[in-house]
Design goal:
Layout lengths: L3 H14 L4 H15 L4 H5 L1 H38 L5 H15 L3 E10 L2 E9 L16 H8 L3 E3 L18 E9 L2 E10 L7 H31 L10 H18 L3 E9 L1 H8 L1 H17 L5 E7 L2 E6 L4 H16 L3 E2 L5 E2 L2 E9 L6 H18 L4 E3 L6
Parallel strand pairs: 11-12
Antiparallel strand pairs: 1-2, 1-5, 3-4, 4-5, 6-8, 6-11, 7-8, 9-10
Helix pairs in contact: 1-2, 1-4, 2-4, 4-5, 4-7, 5-7, 9-10, 10-11
């Protein structure tokens, strides 16, 4: 006579033959054990009934698990879509992608994204399981995973980094498994996402499917972010010189004021106007005049510090914002600009050569004004005095000019 244990052992064997996952087997056996408490001995000894019961449990259990897995994948896709479309900032998007990737794979160690920029793979974002983010551990090597995925435009899985050709000669600490997925739209690869696990072994189909869905959504989000970045740049750039325009200047001044309030340090605003430009424009025409403006813009940019901000205000007028700068420091920057223009001759169509001079007015925050508009007005008044008295000089705004 079969005991409950015998029936359960038989059922367990059949479930293993049907490749039911271990956790699901446990749930099925618990249910079977419960059903056997209401079965009489005759039913219990009938192997056909037990077999049929196991088959029903297994078949329906597999279907239930499939439905549950698909529901979980749909929930994950919904979350991914919402998170990756909530911002048009490229860095925010990339940070969101690696965060989602780490949640999709058990035992994930780290995730990295590299993007193509001017035909080169550059670091985009990273996240480790200890929370450290956006730290590039190494440059992509010529024949390693990232470049191979980008070149072949397909998913590559390395089940054990310690004995795979793509990881030959790497540090011994590089262990476990890793998957590389191209971020692409159609046939165009925009980058590569890598996700490594602490343990060696294959990635299951559900993980691969979810990571692929994430990569597809990431590619769309990256394109949208880059388009937004390009449009935003155009809206804030001068068409002729590609310098920031007045809209960008207004934003920068407001930001500089906020920074100055926080730090307690002053900053400078300089309004500048070219000397002799009108004669060149009137004599040689606007086309030559435009080329002169482009040359002037390039020359001035070379004289600036990394923290300085130069914008074209309009015509041959320029505005300079000097972050955390006092009057003495502002005058040093201005002298460099004047020297740069003095060392760059302008070659004209008739063979003549000339040099462009520059005059300006300086206003400091908060000494001369405490608003963006006030600073422009104060610096512009000082520029007017400089042009009126003697060209080629920079005068400081009077207190109360704003």
């Amino acid at each position: 006579m079969k005991s409950h244990t015998d029936v359960l052992r038989e059922a367990h064997h059949r479930l293993e033959q049907k490749n039911i996952p271990v956790d699901a087997q446990e749930r099925f056996l618990e249910l079977l054990n419960l059903l056997m408490t209401i079965m009489d001995d005759t039913m219990l000894q009938d192997g056909t009934i037990t077999k049929h019961l196991v088959d029903v449990l297994a078949d329906n259990g597999s279907l239930l698990m499939l439905i549950q897995r698909q529901a979980a994948e749909l929930d994950a896709l919904k979350r991914i879509t919402l998170n990756l479309t909530s911002s048009l900032d490229l860095q925010v998007v990339l940070d969101g992608v690696v965060k989602e990737a780490m949640q999709l794979v058990k035992d994930a160690r780290d995730a990295h994204i590299y993007l193509f920029q001017e035909e080169k793979l550059v670091f985009g974002a990273s996240l480790k399981n200890d929370g450290e983010n956006n730290v590039q551990s190494s440059e992509p090597r010529p024949d390693e995973l990232t470049r191979t995925v980008a070149r072949e435009k397909k998913i590559i899985i390395v089940e054990d980094m310690t004995n795979h050709p793509l990881y030959k000669g790497v540090p011994k600490a590089w262990r476990g498994s890793i998957i590389g997925i191209p971020l692409k739209m159609g046939s165009r690869v925009m980058g590569v996402m890598n996700l490594a696990r602490t343990s060696a072994g294959e990635f299951n189909q559900s993980e691969i499917r979810l990571l692929t869905l994430l990569a597809d959504q990431a590619a769309i989000a990256i394109i949208n972010a880059r388009l937004h970045e390009a449009v935003s740049h155009q809206a804030r750039s001068d068409v002729l010189t590609e310098l920031p325009n007045r809209r960008a200047l207004d934003e920068r001044l407001e930001k500089a004021i906020a920074q100055s309030i926080d730090s307690g340090n002053p900053f400078g605003t300089v309004m500048m106007d070219l000397d002799g430009f009108k004669i060149i424009n009137d004599t040689y025409g606007h086309e030559i005049g435009d080329e002169v403006l482009r040359q002037v813009a390039t020359s001035m940019e070379k004289s600036l510090r990394s923290t300085d901000f130069l914008a074209r205000y309009g015509g041959d007028e320029w505005t300079l914002v000097l972050t955390e700068t006092n009057l003495t420091q502002a005058q040093v920057v201005i002298q460099k600009i004047q020297n740069g223009l003095g060392n760059n001759p302008i070659h004209l169509p008739d063979g003549k050569t000339t040099y462009i001079g520059i005059s300006g007015g300086i206003a400091l925050y908060p000494m001369h004004a405490d608003t963006a508009r006030g600073l422009i007005r104060a610096a512009d008044e000082a520029l007017f005095r400089a042009k009126k008295s003697s060209r080629g000089q920079f005068l400081v705004a009077h207190n109360g000019d704003a």
